[in-house]
Each structure stands twice: as structure tokens, then as C-alpha cells.
Amino acid sequence: MTESANPAPRRFWLGGKRKREQDIFFEQALDPALWQPGDAEHWDACWYTGMPPKEVFRQTGPGRTVNHIPGNNCLTVKSRLYQTVHGLQRRLAASRPAGHPDLARADFVPQVFSMPDDYHALQAHAAAHPDKRWLLKPKNAARGKDISLVSDVAEVPTGERWMVQEYLSRPHLMNQRKYVLRLYVLITSVEPLRVYLYEQGFAKLASMPYSLEDADNPYVHLTNPDVNALNEAADDPVVFVDLQRYRHWLREQGHDDEALFDRLRDIVALTTIAARENLRAQLQHHGADQAGCYELIGMDCLVDDRIRPWLLECNLSPSLGVCAAPEDGGDIEAAIKRRLVTDVVTMTGLNDPKPTAEGAGDDPVGQWRAAAEREARHAGGFQRILPAADAAHYLSCFPLPRFADVALADGLSTQPVARPTLQRWQVAEVISGDELLLYGEARQALYATNPTAALIWLHATMGKRPDEIVAALHQTLQGADPNTLQQQVWEALADWAEAGLLVQCPDGAPCETPADGVASASGAAAPRTADAPHAMALRLGQQALHLRTWSEPAARRLFPLLAPLAVPEPGAEALEVDIARSRRGYTVLIAGEVDAEHLRLAELGPWLVRTLLRRTPDVGEIAITGALVPAGPSHPGAALLVCRGDTTGDDALALALARENGQTASGGAAIALEGSGRARSLGLPLRQPRSSTPAPTPRPGEKPDGPDATAHLWWFGQRGHLVPATGTPARDAVEVAAILIAAPDDASGDQGIARQLGLREALGHLLPETARHDGTGLDGRTLSQFADWVAGRPVYAVGHRDDLYLALRAANDVLREINPEGRKEKVAN
Questions:
Q1: What is the model's pTM?
Q2: CA distances from 374 to 188, 358, 744 (A)
């Protein structure tokens, strides 16, 4: 059989989460003389939206390519991206002195806390930095889905799918709008690492002017085109400005655009360096041939008001559809994306007539150099980032460059690049007979060494560079092949460095490894210290409690709220209430028994109020969530019981009524159904609607400053916050002269006029808010007693909707009605 003069056409497969917009430019870029459509079984080039199955990677090779690299989730999953870059920061901080320029270079990602493991670290950090703002994001979602600005980190969910990212609240603005830069990065090889940045990209604009006051508006804070396309109020909801026009605009504004893009190129290089070892490991794990894998990533960077860029996320299979209207940059967007995909196809050699690897026989160094030179000739709009012209600037940022990285850098330079020295990092050496064992502290793993590896370790930890180790081993191991030794030495050292056993020392200088704690990007060590326990003694009527927590954020929020109930000592009979941290929030133990689990910080306050309310009444009493407001000096010993209309209501009316009449307001009341029928205030916190300008949270033991000082102590349901009672619990019980129910949705009467309720309607509002002395709901006998008690005094409903002033006017009318002087004045009139 003779070979055909014309080779069989190659087949391309368009797979994954198919959208025509993701495929059309790729299909158009392929040479129709060389390519025809294929399928999942028959393909030479796979263009896959999303991540393909593992078996696809096992089929890759020099003539069979896929547009993804296994392990890319260390970049494209938002929480993993932060972990990846944080690993780079820790290594640099362990090997550079404080103030070294590399530490500032690596500081380019906003801080991220991954739920649930980082929940308590987030609460502690937010408490220590109250000026910071936060974004709640899914760890693995795209196109702005489910992203929101967080009013209070105490409310963030603790589920596995969530992360919280520091919000960069001072962005640089274009036409008064926030924008994010979309960069296109192409990784063509993992070992040696070859990375390119496309010359074009976009500034993606939000669709409304930027303002921190408009915190809940996604069109102000998010730049994702899928989100802003829904803004029907905007004339131009999706605007893309290409990078050429953006740079021209920056220069017109007096900014140094070249300095900004130098920094962006540095971020691209450092990010991919940080990810390389994970990509390499996953290529091996998937059985993939790296010659058949490449990755196009969409990097999103925000530029702050100091023209400093920050990496926000890396996007898998970046959108290739045209998002903007023609007049808003859509035509230019289409042209850039078409040219981008065409250049990717050219760079990866898909349109080469003979898809064989260029190289010099079996010489791997020659093959690496030939591949890099071929890409340089066909780069189109791509600029090579790695290997860099200044090789030392980046090779020292790897855990340790692999031999391929160094060899390629040598081949592209006029002289060999400097070889690194290394130093022990997170490792302990264990001698067992004639065997050297290495214990890696970072992964808590034990590594065995053979005799050759033990010699490599010995030479490396004595300060010898890799080439010096090769020379020493060649003298010791007679007959060993120098090239094989070279590969073994670099491989062993790089593996140990990747595991955290060794760290590079730049310029041959001694490393400055932090003695304790975790190194930060600034070079300082963050000590691992546990929060000191905080304790508070409380008394609610006859019930004494000893509240303890080992969480600083919980103490800072809870203790000021409960200050009106505080007593100097808990007493021997006090009930122990312990609030402990758990992986998914907080666990509460009462008298040593678990009472609640998985509470978020925001849920602790409301839960504690409900629990205390149910434990407060004595035998013959019931507790109710209403607030007691004294009737005033002309009616001593009497009070108005102001209750919420339902379980989701607030105490705004009670607080306003007390403030206007110069009285105190206290949350919760205990009513003596057997005996006097009088009520005593419990001194529990009250619910206040959310303030537009919350004040700083006081520390435990500090006194709140002013009426709104605790304004954001406790958000509940995004509607309001808890505030302390405005007075200490009264020792003497009072007569409840009337009951006022704040029912915002009550529209059966005129606004500003209190509507008197019948017994059935009144009980419908009040019963859900009551508890017996044993913490349970009312039994039949107690219900009958409570109904008689309610029937013995007037009950009014005030429907104020959004007008608290009208409700306050109606409440004051009720006060005058129950006040003897007020009744006389009414009769006289």
C-alpha cells in the first residue's frame, strides 16, 4: 500500500458547554484545506468550552491537541487562585529580608477567606480592620453570578461554595464608572514554562456611576457584561474600551500607561509561575502529553485610584462572544476576539501542514529552544512574558526552576543565567541507620532518600549550587553520565523546593526564614495566637448566667449589647453559657450541653436574645418580646407594652416613643399571670432598623459612644441591627396600662390613628412572641390566663407602613389616653 500524496484531513471537535459564539472564531481560523469537522471519537484538535473529561487528556500528543491544561483550577477557581498566589508570597517572604522589592511585587491579589475553614479568621480580620469592605462570591462561578457586596461579614454563609474577598473600594474610574481590565494570557508549555500576553484586550465598564452609598446595586459595583446587560435604565449598559484606546486615554489623563502595563506583565508572570508546579503535577496525574495541551485564560484586573493593578480572577474558556453594541465598542470587540483566536491557532501550530515538533533530534534542549523560536516567529499579537529577557528577574521566583526552564533561558541568552543557592525551609532531618529521612512540615509528610539523593541534599544544604552539585557527584560516582546526573540533581532539588523543604536564596544571600508563625507578603511573621477567653456575668431576674467565649469578634459584638444586664460576679449558682468556635461558625453550650450548632456570627445575637427570653420567667410568669416604655411621671408605676407585629418585626416604634418622651426602653417583659398581673422589664437588646451610617463597633468593656454607637452591632436578615436596652432592668414591676402593636402592614385604619383590636386579633399578634417559665409555648391553662390578662387592658394596632412619624403620633395618643392628666385634658376639650 502506498501513502497518499495528499494526507487525510485532520478533524476538529467542538465540545463542552456549547455556544456558537465560543466556537465560531476558532472554526473560521482553521485552514479548511487541512481541517474538517470531527466528534468526540475522531479528533486531532479539541476546542472545549469548560473542562474536558480526564480521558481526553490521555489522548493528547504533538499532533493531537486540546485547549486546556489539567490543573488549571489552581488559577480559574477563585479561592484556589488566592491560595496559589499566597504560596508564592510565603516563599518570597521566607527568603527575602523585610522591604525587599520582590515582596511588594507579589502583593497583587485582594485578601480572600474561603468558607468554612477561614470563617473565624475572616471575623477576626474584619473586627481588626473595620474600614475594609468585602465581597461575597461563589468559589467556582462565572459572569458575575451570585456576587454581592457584604454589609456585615457576620452574615456571610459558611457553606463550602462561598468565599469572601476584600473589596477594593477606591477604584480608578472611567467616565465616573468602575472598570476592570480583561487581559488574554496564553500558556503554550508548562515545562519549560512559556507564557504570552496578548497586546489587545478590554476595559469593561459598569453601567452606573460608582458610589459606595449605593452598596446593593450590582450595576454600580460589578463590571460583568452579563450582569450589566440587564440594566434597562442605562442607555449603554455594556461598554468595552479596547486597550489601545484605554492606554491613549490614560496618557491624556496624565498617567504613565507603560508603567501600569509593565506591572500587569509582572502580575501575569508571577501568577503563572505560582501555578506551574500544580499544572505540572496534574499533567502527570492525568497522563497528558504537555505537547498537546495549551491554555487561553482571561485575566481580570482592577486598577485602583493610584493606578495600581490588582488581580481579581482568572477565567477558564473566556467569553469569545461579542457583548457590546457596535456603538459601544462591539465592532472593535469582535475584530479583536477574532484576531486573538486566529493568533492562538497560529501559535499552537494547528495550521502547520506537518504538525510535528520542531527540534534537533533527541536533544531536548534544542527542541525547547526551537519551539520557543517558532512561537516567536508566529506570535502575531502575543508578547512573550516567560521566559523573560531578564531571566534572573523571574527564575528566582519559582520554588526552584526546573532544568528545562534554566536550559531554555541559557539558550535564549547571550550568557548562562546565574544558578541559585538553596537553604532548608520547613524540614526536619531524621537519620535512621544509614538512611536519611526528610520530614516536610508544610505537608506533614516523610520523604525517603536513596544514597544519591542524600548526597544531593547534603551538598545543597551546604550552599552548593546545582551545577556544583553535579560536578561533585560526577567525581564521587565514577562512570555516571553527566547529563543524567544533571537531570537528577535539578529534579530532586525542584521536587524538594516544591514541597517546601528548600527555598531559593536570591543573589546567593542567606535566607531570612521567619522563626515562628506564617510569613506574610510584607515579610513579617503572623504569629499563631489564640484569642484570650472573654467572660461576662449577667443577671435576668432570678436567673444568673456566666457567659464565656474564646472568640474576640463574638465578644466585641455581644458584650456591649448585654451591658445593661451585667453584674460584677456570676455567683456560684450561675448557669454556664459557652460560645465556642467550630468549623462552620459557632457552637453554644449551656450547662455543658450543646444547645445550638453552626451559628453564624450574625445569628449569635438573635439566638442569645431568644434563649435568654425563654429562660427568664419565673413560675407563674410568661415572657414576651415586647418593650416596656414608662407612661411618664404623671402616671408613675404604669407602662405601655409595645410589641412587634410579627416575628420579623423591629422595635423602632418603642425606641422612638421612649426617646421622644424622655423615657427608657427595655427589650422583653415578664408578666405575672398568677398574682398581681404586673410586668417587669428584662433589659434585653432591641431591634432597630438599619442605620445608613453605622458607627464603629466598641471593644469588650468599652462604652458605646452616642445613641447610634452600636448601630451595626447586629444585622438581622438585612433589615436592621440589635441595640442595647436604653436603661437597666427595673427592680419593681409595673402595671401595663395598654398594649400597642406595631404592625407596619396594618392598613385597616387611617394612617397615624391607633386602631383598637379585639381579643382574637390581639392574641394572633402576641402569642408567637411568648414563652412559659420552662421555655416552652403556652399550655391551655396558661393561655386562658394570658387571654384574661390581655382582655383586661386596651390593645391598639398602628399601621405605619414606611412613616414612623405617623405611628409615633398614634402611640402618643394612646399614652395620653392612659394618662389621667391626658384624659382630663381630653374631657375639658
A1: 0.81
A2: 12, 8, 73
